[in-house]
Design a protein that fits this description.
The complex is a heterodimer. Chain A is mainly α. Chain A has helices at about 10-25, 30-40, 45-60, 65-80, 105-110, 125-140, 145-160, 170-185, 190-204; strands at about 85-90, 100. Chain A folds into 2 domains: about 10-80, no CATH class; about 105-204, no CATH class. In chain A, strands 1-2 form a two-stranded antiparallel ribbon. Chain A is globular, with a radius of gyration of 16 Å. By secondary structure, chain B is low in regular secondary structure. Chain B has a domain at about 50-75. The chains are: A mainly alpha, B little secondary structure. Chains A and B meet through α1, α2, α3, α4 and β1 of A and α1 of B.
């Protein structure tokens, strides 16, 4: 099983991802397959490392570098091949329970759920961590207008899917707020703040 | 991309099992270091939309291995 290095070389990984997307063609099959191969290589347990790499691309990348990755994500989404991490449905407690793949933003949204009525403890991401990481991934997608609109619509569809057992009701509501805000304005930070506020209200 | 089953209670962001190898064990939301630490820190390295000559024309798998080699062992 893959283990994260003691000192992961985040910047090197981010540059390699950018270089791969550019070399293979940001809107091409190869770049989409590259993201899938990276996530497969990491496995579900280390999927958050992929999200960290995306955040590094956003924080350190020149515009063309960020756009190459954003365009690849848009192409992935339009093909239904968003690089995803698998999580158990929120109500399941057994190993091998029903699982669903979640794309980067919806994965982070579920990780930010404080689970107030659940013995499993606090959220995996604090509101501050969620804001930092989700904003970075969303800002990256903002580099491509198609990517933002596509992804915002995708998030709204996830939020409105009553048959999907992955997310509890309060996360769906907050996700809907995030999707609507982000679709209206390319302001990731504001949309993330609205998500955190909505979750906070539900927990009270 | 379905992998080995995880307990739904497993934290994917802050548990010891996800901490970098050889890093301090006690951490997570309680205040210690997590693998999210240092995001964006460590200088102003700029990622460029360039491909080094020796990396042009690599296969999908070769590009993926370059990414993974910087992260996992």
């Amino acid at each position: 099983m893959a283990e994260l290095l003691a000192q992961p070389r985040w910047v090197e990984a981010a540059q390699a991802l950018v270089g791969g997307c550019v070399d293979l063609g940001p809107r091409q099959e190869g770049a989409v397959a590259l993201m899938e191969a990276v996530c497969t290589g990491l496995g579900d347990r280390l999927y958050p490392a992929f999200l960290r790499v995306l955040a590094e691309v956003n924080l350190r990348g020149e515009y063309a570098a960020r756009a190459a990755v954003a365009q690849t994500l848009a192409q992935s989404l339009s093909q239904g091949r968003l690089p995803s991490g698998s999580r158990a449905a929120w109500g399941s407690l057994q190993l091998g329970a029903q699982r669903r793949s979640l794309g980067p933003i919806e994965y982070l949204c579920l990780a930010a759920w404080p689970r107030p009525h659940d013995s499993r403890g606090p959220a995996e991401l604090s509101p501050e961590q969620f804001q930092t990481l989700a904003s970075a991934v969303m800002e990256l997608l903002d580099c491509d207008p198609d990517a933002r609109l596509l992804y915002a619509d995708h998030l709204a569809a996830v939020a409105d899917d009553p048959l999907d057992g992955t997310m509890p009701r309060e996360v769906r509501a907050a996700l809907r707020t995030l999707a609507q805000g982000w679709r209206s304005h390319p302001d990731a930070s504001q949309a993330c703040s609205a998500f955190v506020a909505s979750l906070g209200k539900a927990a009270r | 991309m379905i992998g080995a089953p995880l307990s739904p209670s497993a934290s994917l962001f802050s548990t010891a099992s996800l901490r970098p190898l050889e890093s301090p064990a006690a951490a997570g939301r309680a205040g210690g270091p997590t693998w999210l630490d240092g995001l964006g820190a460590g200088g102003a390295a700029t990622l460029r939309a360039d491909v080094a000559v020796d990396q042009r024309g690599l296969s999908v798998q070769q590009h993926a291995e370059r990414v993974l080699a910087a992260l996992i062992g």
